[in-house]
Amino acid sequence: MQRAYYHAPIADFLIQSEESIIGQLALEHTHALEESQKGAWLHQIKVLQNELLYFARGHVLFEVAIPRMGKRADVLVLLDDAVFVLEFKVRSTTYDQSGQDQVLDYALDLKNFHAGSHHVRILPILIATHAPTHRNILLSFEDGLCQAMLGNESQIAELLHLGTAGVAGQVIDVQAWLRSGYHPTPTIIEAAQAIYKGHRVTDISRSDAGAENLTVTGACVADIIDGSKANGRKSICFVTGVPGAGKTLAGLNIASERTQIDEVEHAVFLSGNGPLVDVLREALARDKVHDAKRIGRRIDKKQAVSEVRTFIQNIHHFRDEALRTQGPPIEKVTVFDEAQRAWSAQQASKFMQQKRGQPDFNMSEPEFLIEVMDRHPDWCTVVCLVGGGQEINTGEAGLEEWLRAFESRFSDWDIYYSRRIRDDQNYLNTVTGVARLDALQAQPLDALHLAVSVRSFRSEHVAAFVQAILDADVEKAQHIYASQLRDVYPIQLTRQLEPAKAWLRQQARGTERYGLVASSGAHRLKPLGLNIKDKIDAPVWFLNGRDDVRSSYYLEDVATEFDIQGLELDWVGLAWDADLWLHQGKWHFRKFKGTRWQQCNTLESRRYLLNAYRVLLTRARQGMVLFIPEGSATDETRLPNFYAETYAFFLQIGLPELGKVGRD
Fold first, then answer.
1. Is the pLDDT of residue 661 over 60?
2. What is the pTM of this model?
3. Residue 90 backbone zone (phi > 0: left; psi -120 to 50: alpha; other: beta)
């Protein structure tokens, strides 16, 4: 992806003809050039050649790629020690909030993901060309990023002077800045939108270890598919990854790339995670409508939703279609997201008998899905994306159920797996599970493990930190926090809900999203105004703006592990209840029944609860606040001792208390 359509020293830009600059911009523009876009460029060139007359130094760039967002910033000006990000709203008479958020988002993207911009000042400016003159005060955040300044087309020189006056920082080496690497980390929603538009994962994701890992894994899966296709074999591969490593991103990319390679394969991404499917479909549909409107084409929302359904499908619809026919499905390559959540034989049989009128159904969900793909007479490939320690609901059988399906059937299939499956008990937590794997003569491939988190771009060590918390290993958690997280990934601790909400609002800039989460068993947060029984509308909660009371921004509705698994927020407020409480250095597991807490007696129910908190603790991309209530001496379901040791545990780890002097 070309970094900028045009760039030049300001001195050269000032003497270059408008036609020449337009020609260079048009040459780099790969889509059909609309007159409106050409007109906007011409207006920007005229304005800037006038406003930059007294700046002989510096460098100017037009149409600068922001790959993570799939967009381009209008203009960047490198001047002295600062990067000015200019977003033009040609002929606009108002400084809209959406425009302010847009230019701040671009600036944040440079600050977070462009190596040459990490340690320089970045000043976003919204130019509403025909708006009234705006009086600005330069306000900076701690990281050198400034709040968005506002101005009309006659104020640009004034704002550049304001941003450079009295500052004596190191002048930016323009050539070094231009050569600097860009390492974006998109949200899964941004990634899905970009991949749907035909971008490769390497265009939108980090080019360091995280993206290398994604690329290597994708290439390994592609080799397996190509080998199966060439040799008429049936294959299954199990891809593992730490929380936030990009398993869903990898799956979407595999399905998209296979479709581009050969449409006859009908590669499909399948997920049983209803909220994830709903959110991604809604995001893609909205994006499709927006893009069509931008180029003057009309498409209604219903049509857009229909078109994106083929890209992301609900696994239950795939299953139900297979029940109606004995023939093979059209898909030759299926990617099953969160395969560890597939149902056991008992759960699947119960559902099929009660909900689908299949009294003789006696297979687990993995066995049935493999049987469906086995109907192909020649070849097929199944890709299972497996999260370790991610089973969170009754009947979710984990990886072992997939292995059990091959014990007496499907002996002609080739099985490939990540070696991490044997080494990490979060994947196979029984001796029999490991024995089943060994008996299958499957082939281990290291490339099938995604080891690096790309969600928490501030630190890749969040998953290890969370594992130490869930192991109640205070020393290990202390070490990881002090050495890897404290200075780059803020985590705050509080006993009060309102300060937690205020902190979230203060941290977020631009359109960075924040929200409250809690476990589905956190019933006694209700007296504090957090009712986990009030179900969120996932697409609305995750996608709608600050003006919608139903969105995550309002901090009124809380998402549970079922709502948020596979998705993420920039900033998370986790409300901790007494369902998982620390007592004498060990985690204790409870469920609320009727009017009181009851112990979780089965290993399975304890594992689900521990995994629920694992999901919640790994949803934040940039930082989080843990709200652990004080409890109430007059409420036997919320006694202070239910929360006190948990809070003390996090204090011992070293987490700062919100608002305490000397600890922030």
1. no
2. 0.88
3. beta
Asked if residue 2 has pLDDT above 80, the reply is: no
User: Edge to edge, what strands does the sheet with 59-66 contain?
Assistant: 4-9, 59-66, 71-79, 82-89, 121-128, 149-151
Place of tokens 């697409």: 539
Residue 292 has pLDDT above 90, yes or no: no
Reading the block at residue 246, the tokens are: 């990009």
Q: Please report how the helices 188-196 and 247-261 are oriented relative to each other, as an axis angle in degrees rounded to 10.
A: 0
Say whether pLDDT at 40 is over 80: yes
Gap between the Cα atoms of 242 and 250, Å rounded: 13
Residue 566, CA atoms < 13 Å, CB-side half-sphere: 30
CA distance 582 to 576: 11
Residue 644 class from Cβ within 10 Å (0-12 exposed, 13-18 middle, 19+ buried)? middle
> How are beta strands 71-79 and 59-66 bridged, if at all?
antiparallel
Contact 613, 580 (CB under 8 A): yes
Q: CA-CA distance, 230 to 376, in Å (whole number)?
A: 15
Which of 468, 505, 507, 508 is closest to 485 using CA atoms? 468
Q: Are strands 514-518 and 586-593 parallel, antiparallel or unpaired?
A: unpaired
Residue with structure tokens 């050409």? Answer: 38
Helix/strand/coil for 97: helix
How many Cα atoms sit within 13 Å of 119 on the Cβ side? 7
Task: Report the phi/psi class of residue 562: left, alpha or beta, with left for phi > 0 and alpha for psi in -120 to 50.
Answer: alpha
**Tens of pLDDT along 523-566?**
999 999 999 999 999 999 999 999 999 999 999 999 999 999 99
> What are the two backbone dihedrals, phi and then psi, of residue 416, each rounded to the nearest 5 degrees?
-125, 140
> What Å distances lie between residue 300 and 247, 293, 304, CA to CA?
32, 10, 6
Helix (H) or strand (E) holding 280: helix 274-294
Half-sphere exposure in the Cβ direction for 202 (13 Å, CA): 9
Half-sphere exposure of 420 (CA within 13 A, CB side): 19
φ, ψ dihedrals at 393, nearest 5°: -140, 160
Write down the residue that tokens 């709608």 correspond to: 544
Place of tokens 């969170």: 392
The dihedral sign for the CA sequence 312, 316, 320, 326 = positive
More confident residue, 233 or 432: 233
User: Cα separation of 2 and 64, whole Å?
Assistant: 8
CB 82 within 8 A of CB 164: yes
pLDDT digits (tens, 9 = 90+) for 263-281: 888 899 999 899 999 999 9
Q: What is the dihedral of CA 363, 366, 372, 375, to 10 degrees?
A: -100
Rounded to an integer, the average pLDDT of 350-377 is 93
